[in-house]
Amino acid sequence: MRHAEQVTFGGSALDRAGEIRNNPAVVKYARAAADSRAIVFWRGKPLISPERPASLVRLPMDHPVLADAREEPILLGREEGAARFAFDLSSWQPDGLDEASLGAFLDPSEQRHPALHDNMVFAELRRVMTWLNPRDAELAATGKAILSWHESHGFCAKCGAKSAIGQAGWQRQCPVCKTCHFPRTDPVVIMLITHGNSVLMGRSPGWPRGMFSLLAGFVEPGETLEAAVRREVFEEAGVQVGAVNYLSSQPWPFPASLMFGCRGEALSQEITIDPVEIEDAMWVPREEMMEVFAGTHPVILPARKGAIAHFLLENWLADRLD
């Protein structure tokens, strides 16, 4: 495995069991198998055991709490031949729920279901992603992303009729016009733009104080990754980019992106920001970036561990981008 594949949410080689999704009899058999397990979510939060080392909880398929699932479970794949299904318990309403904390940039709240053990909590994946091993992280990211897609795509985009789950959760089927819809993944480029010994960093409005990251943006229809890198950097920071190389990718289920990490060489250094897109941008020399990672920089906080921006910057500092 390439070092570039060891980014969070990638690299666990999950068997996604795609060959059985369209076979209802086999899926039904898998749901009834003694070694099959349920991965449970509430409002996109996976159920974990938070005691370090933290782990993704796998419930027996006959656990009573699963009866409260909103829709049919999603087949995520197999571990050592045993099926794993995602269940959505978002219809449960915890007592004393603080809705404000759920909308926070990094939700610190945890929810405990009364029918589950006290050491099991629903926790924001963005907060706990680095606590999980690669397999748990991939299962959590996959489940969160596809359940989010189902939540926002309950009606046919062609005729407006209510659609139904098909292919073990990997399709929605319209009973009226017969159109089939498949999970959406949005391609996003995130750019390590360098000029000499410096890297370009920026921050979006509303981010926590001191938070800077690599520039990023969605790929537009009819556009290559390389073209998207050059366009986004110029639009946001007014910097012209020449050569562009692909480095690494990361599934980012917030809600359903695939981040393409790219490296680009800046042809210009003057920065002119678009205040609608970002509120600040700067060139950070390698020596200062080492201070950032050490937590001693006076302005910039370290990039969030687990995010591909941290992965790219860390490997740029270590000269092991490959």
From TrEMBL:
Catalytic activity field: a 5'-end NAD(+)-phospho-ribonucleoside in mRNA + H2O = a 5'-end phospho-adenosine-phospho-ribonucleoside in mRNA + beta-nicotinamide D-ribonucleotide + 2 H(+)
The protein's Enzyme Commission number: 3.6.1.22
UniProt KW keywords: Hydrolase, Magnesium, Metal-binding, NAD
Superkingdom field: Bacteria
Domain Nudix hydrolase: 183-314
Enzyme class: hydrolase
Cofactor(s) the protein requires to work: Mg(2+); Zn(2+)
Gene3D superfamilies: 3.90.79.20, Nucleoside Triphosphate Pyrophosphohydrolase (3.90.79.10)
Family: Belongs to the Nudix hydrolase family. NudC subfamily.
PANTHER family for the chain: NAD-CAPPED RNA HYDROLASE NUDT12, NUDIX HYDROLASE, NUDC SUBFAMILY
Protein name, entry field: NAD(+) diphosphatase
